[in-house]
Amino acid sequence: MDVYLQTLLSGLAIGGVYALIALGFSITFTTTKTLNFAQGEFIAFGAFIGVTMLLLFSGLASTTTAVPSEAASAWRYPAAVIAAGAVAGLMGVLIFLLAVRPFAGKGGMNWVMSTLGFGVMLQSIGLAVWGPAPVMVPSPLGDDVLRIAGAGVRPQELLVLACAILIMVALDLVMRRSRIGKAMMAVAHSPQIASLMGINVGLVMIGAFALSSGLAGVAGVLIAPIASASLFMGIGFALKAFSAAIIGGLNNPRGCIYGGFILGVLESAVGLWQAQWREIVVFGLIILVLAFRPAGLFGQAAVDKV
Amino acid sequence: MRHLIGSVAVAAVIAAVASFIENEFYLRTLFMICVYFLCAAGMNVLLGFAGQKSLGQAGLFAAGAYAVALLTTRYEIGPWLSLLLACGVSAVFGILIAMPSLRVKGPSLAMVTLAFGIVIEKVVTEGSEVFGGAMGIYAIQPLHIGGVPFTMLQWVWFGLGLCLVAHLLLRNLLQGRFGRAFLSLQADEVAAGAVGVAVYRYKVLAFVIAAVTCGLAGALVAQQNQYINSDFINFHLSIFILLLVLFGGSGSLYGPLLGSVTLVIIGALVARWTWIEHFVNGALLLFALYAMPKGLAGVFGSLFRRFGLGHSASRGAEPSRAASKLPTRSLPQTAAGSLLTAGSLNKAFGGVVPAKDVSVNLTVGHIHALIGPNGAGKSTFINMLTGIIRPDRGKVTFLGQDITQQTVHGICGHGVARTFQNLRLFKDLSVRENVLLGQHSRMQNGFVSSLLGLPKARREEAEALQKVNNILQFTGLLPYADAPAGSLAYGLQRRVELARALASEPLLLLLDEPAAGLNPQETAELGQLLVRIRNEGMTILLIEHHMDLVMSISDHVIVLDYGQKIAEGAPSKVQADPRVMEAYLGTSVEAA
């Protein structure tokens, strides 16, 4: 029984991370009809910026391959999360201006390839700065396993879950209640009409990319203590998060969140049975969903008017 | 023919020059250019022509490489046969990666292909029992002649030969019916289906072509190295193959050549530092997208034109001086008056019901008009007849055959052609190519005869060109034949779409608001044109709001309102019908 609870909790934790990233995909897709194909690099950069910040805050040289556990204590980890989110958000603005805006809205989907190219450049820069070796990152709550109803849980998993839920609830409120959120929903519905209503569509789109990339950066720092930071970690997370977005429906932010949690728990459950089958089962599921409900479990099929 | 001799000569010169090169590194670079040319040539079909963004080509490269590795080491099949089988295995993987493309489009499809590449990478890395993981598979049998393995020079010659064959075959394919069909997929899938292109089949075909060339390239690399491991298969390979096409010039026949030559040489120069190599590739990808959307081929092309070196190819036979006649297909004898019958068609989108028990009978040789207020369900009706929307209930019979559940291109094949309310032209293609696409379903040449450039394919192409010229003359579009369709004035674009529909030699022509956006002069001309088309023996159903046009040319008028047929009959009879007046003018309180 405790094994199942344990699986469920760690699945929810990793699912929370998928949900954050999937939400990022959904935000740019609804507002700009584009996706950031370099999202994986943003996750990895987020993790490494987090690492660098932790080392900077505690006054250590930034060349170590492992971060000592005291470096993540107290205020330093939250500060690193915020810093990583902010830097990744700025990079999101950059990628929007350089690689997305010149191509968005035109035929041919050239932004797919331009964001990919941007990602390749980012990864190369990352390799030059931080090197290819993975870095162990300590959890701010320590690594002692907690016991909840007999199930062993790593405190970082609970922290990740709590942070993810907190961020998503906050975003959901902002989206539904605030002027900014309403502006974003208006742009998602129709950029032309939104601009006629006096909404600065260009700014909303920049904001969408900043937010989406910021979420990826935050996700990177959150997951680093569980998965350890590596410049090659991103693509796997990004693909699974995208799968989560597909399951939930790219047009439906809440659906993306459910999709993230579903995928996390499913992956964790498959891991219980056969660890190396995880990826294959996950991607198999995506193909099934795409085959029977191309708009996702919670999405609505767009009617193509002829 | 000139092209064939030229290509063979160029390849022969390179082969001869190569035989004087002693430096192994230079020979290997030449060999890698050949390998990447193969990848790029297939990818160009997929990306440049069919417009499908596949980001998982490394997976297909792996399919070929590991197939040849396992076949020669585990099953001890000869290297030549293994190479051939590896192409087959890659083709199967090509079908596999094409499957999602039948359901999803756009960015999601790109992401799925990306995932495909990553999964294959994972499988060959983790599955160390079969694939050797990072240790790899050793002792792959190289190609040999009489038991003596190829020397490096022979590899180069072999590679050059394959490139030559690939280039010539793909050129045959892409310059005719198949190339146009691929381009139509890229431009507009709905319109492609409506002109008779079997959208799914062509998509799968494009994926398979790219898979076979990529797999062949992978197999060559594995056999030449006599070794393959998981390091070969990575995301950067997929990106590199994409870059080859984009940088060289996507959609150009020479793009893959330019791309593979320049990029392999650049790669060889910066190969000492891996991360710089990747950085350069990423930067070049962005640069190509920004600065030269048509790649090196586009840059060279415009340079040649500037210095007057390009030859302006005037394609097509001279139009006959005599008043041209439309190509038409003969009506089967069984058709006694009634061409198409729609029986109690029903369709609902949620609460909106655009069709409620609509029954219509279309008579051979008549111009039928379908009128009704906005939102009456007129376009939906045409969409149901052409298979774009499936009715919830009801039956469509064309010449006694039930076509309700048939595919869009299948219905076009029976002789039902259409135009769209919001123009769906292939904007970047010339007017002539647009109309030639209309001929697609009438052309008989299949894949093999097109690929090999057999006389049959040439004959079909020449015949189609002749028919298209006649249609262009009939519709008065001949002066614009070589202009991109999207560059014409709106009224002309409407006429191009009509010409494209005529090119499928339909028995029934469905026109969705052909006069929308036309000025009175153009509308009157259109009316005359439609009467001339009817006089050629075609039956027409048009949706139209210009009542003077409708009333002057139609033999029979059908009125829809809120998805229901409220009146039909001769124009004068319908005009006098009180229910029609009510629908249009709202004379009754209950109306609206």
UniProtKB/TrEMBL annotation, chain A:
<keyword id="KW-0813">Transport</keyword>
<feature type="transmembrane region" description="Helical">
    <location>
        <begin position="75"/>
        <end position="99"/>
    </location>
</feature>
<dbReference type="InterPro" id="IPR052157">
    <property type="entry name" value="BCAA_transport_permease"/>
</dbReference>
<feature type="transmembrane region" description="Helical">
    <location>
        <begin position="280"/>
        <end position="303"/>
    </location>
</feature>
<keyword id="KW-1003">Cell membrane</keyword>
<feature type="transmembrane region" description="Helical">
    <location>
        <begin position="196"/>
        <end position="216"/>
    </location>
</feature>
<feature type="transmembrane region" description="Helical">
    <location>
        <begin position="158"/>
        <end position="175"/>
    </location>
</feature>
<keyword id="KW-0472">Membrane</keyword>
<feature type="transmembrane region" description="Helical">
    <location>
        <begin position="12"/>
        <end position="30"/>
    </location>
</feature>
<feature type="transmembrane region" description="Helical">
    <location>
        <begin position="111"/>
        <end position="131"/>
    </location>
</feature>
<protein>
    <submittedName>
        <fullName>Branched-chain amino acid ABC transporter permease</fullName>
    </submittedName>
</protein>
<dbReference type="InterPro" id="IPR001851">
    <property type="entry name" value="ABC_transp_permease"/>
</dbReference>
<dbReference type="Pfam" id="PF02653">
    <property type="entry name" value="BPD_transp_2"/>
</dbReference>
<keyword id="KW-0029">Amino-acid transport</keyword>
<comment type="similarity">
    <text>Belongs to the binding-protein-dependent transport system permease family. LivHM subfamily.</text>
</comment>
<feature type="transmembrane region" description="Helical">
    <location>
        <begin position="42"/>
        <end position="63"/>
    </location>
</feature>
<feature type="transmembrane region" description="Helical">
    <location>
        <begin position="255"/>
        <end position="274"/>
    </location>
</feature>
<keyword id="KW-1133">Transmembrane helix</keyword>
<feature type="transmembrane region" description="Helical">
    <location>
        <begin position="222"/>
        <end position="243"/>
    </location>
</feature>
<keyword id="KW-0812">Transmembrane</keyword>
UniProtKB/TrEMBL annotation, chain B:
<feature type="transmembrane region" description="Helical">
    <location>
        <begin position="30"/>
        <end position="51"/>
    </location>
</feature>
<feature type="transmembrane region" description="Helical">
    <location>
        <begin position="58"/>
        <end position="75"/>
    </location>
</feature>
<dbReference type="InterPro" id="IPR003439">
    <property type="entry name" value="ABC_transporter-like_ATP-bd"/>
</dbReference>
<keyword id="KW-1133">Transmembrane helix</keyword>
<dbReference type="InterPro" id="IPR027417">
    <property type="entry name" value="P-loop_NTPase"/>
</dbReference>
<keyword id="KW-0547">Nucleotide-binding</keyword>
<dbReference type="InterPro" id="IPR003593">
    <property type="entry name" value="AAA+_ATPase"/>
</dbReference>
<dbReference type="InterPro" id="IPR032823">
    <property type="entry name" value="BCA_ABC_TP_C"/>
</dbReference>
<feature type="transmembrane region" description="Helical">
    <location>
        <begin position="152"/>
        <end position="170"/>
    </location>
</feature>
<keyword id="KW-0472">Membrane</keyword>
<keyword id="KW-1003">Cell membrane</keyword>
<dbReference type="InterPro" id="IPR051120">
    <property type="entry name" value="ABC_AA/LPS_Transport"/>
</dbReference>
<keyword id="KW-0812">Transmembrane</keyword>
<feature type="transmembrane region" description="Helical">
    <location>
        <begin position="257"/>
        <end position="276"/>
    </location>
</feature>
<dbReference type="Pfam" id="PF12399">
    <property type="entry name" value="BCA_ABC_TP_C"/>
</dbReference>
<dbReference type="GO" id="GO:0005524">
    <property type="term" value="F:ATP binding"/>
</dbReference>
<dbReference type="Pfam" id="PF02653">
    <property type="entry name" value="BPD_transp_2"/>
</dbReference>
<dbReference type="InterPro" id="IPR043428">
    <property type="entry name" value="LivM-like"/>
</dbReference>
<feature type="domain" description="ABC transporter">
    <location>
        <begin position="340"/>
        <end position="587"/>
    </location>
</feature>
<dbReference type="Pfam" id="PF00005">
    <property type="entry name" value="ABC_tran"/>
</dbReference>
<protein>
    <submittedName>
        <fullName>Branched-chain amino acid ABC transporter ATP-binding protein/permease</fullName>
    </submittedName>
</protein>
<keyword id="KW-0813">Transport</keyword>
